[in-house]
Amino acid sequence: MISEVSPQTSSLFVDPATKISFVANDDKGALLDGISVTLNGVLHTASSGLTIEGPDNARKVSLGGLQANRSYHAEIKVLDAEGESDTRYLFFDTFDKDSFVVEIEDYNKME
């Protein structure tokens, strides 16, 4: 049911102006209130930020508002008129590729 997902999962250095987008396809039609994106724990629906266009059987969905220099986890869910659902998970970041980042750990830390 969910296709044409963008950005692709595990994408690095995504432009913050990019919108999360996908198409919800179904022969019975995807319900408007059955389409959601949970982005870093915040639920977005048709009434709270998602842009949903197109006919019931091929809805084009998008969500903007990404911020620079962040790591993102998105859960896309679509529910059709018969109660069937599909879910996709995305992991991506909007870090600036010109930024210098060092990951460190305190491996000797005693707790």
List the helices and strands and how they pair.
Elements: E1 2-6, E2 20-25, E3 30-39, E4 42-44, E5 51-53, E6 58-63, E7 71-80, E8 85-93
Antiparallel strand pairs: 1-2, 2-6, 3-4, 3-7, 5-6, 7-8
What's a quick, concise take on this entry?
The chain is mostly beta strands and 111 residues long. The protein is built from no helices and eight strands. Helices cover 0% and strands 47% of the residues.
Mind explaining what this structure looks like?
- The protein is mainly β and 111 residues long.
- It is 0% helix and 47% strand.
- It contains no helices and eight strands.
- The strands form two sheets. A four-stranded antiparallel sheet has the order 1-2-6-5, with no helix packed on it. Strands 4-3-7-8 form a four-stranded antiparallel sheet, with no helix packed on it.
- The chain is elongated and about 55 Å long.
Given helix and strand content, the structural type is mainly beta
Task: State the helicity in percent bands.
Answer: under 10%
Percent of residues in β-strands? over 45%
The whole-number mean of residue pLDDT values reads 90
Arrangement of strands in the largest sheet: 1-2-6-5
Global morphology: elongated
> What is the CA-CA span between the terminal residues?
46 Å
What is the string of helix and strand elements? EEEEEEEE
Descriptive key words:
four-stranded antiparallel beta sheet; 47% strand; elongated
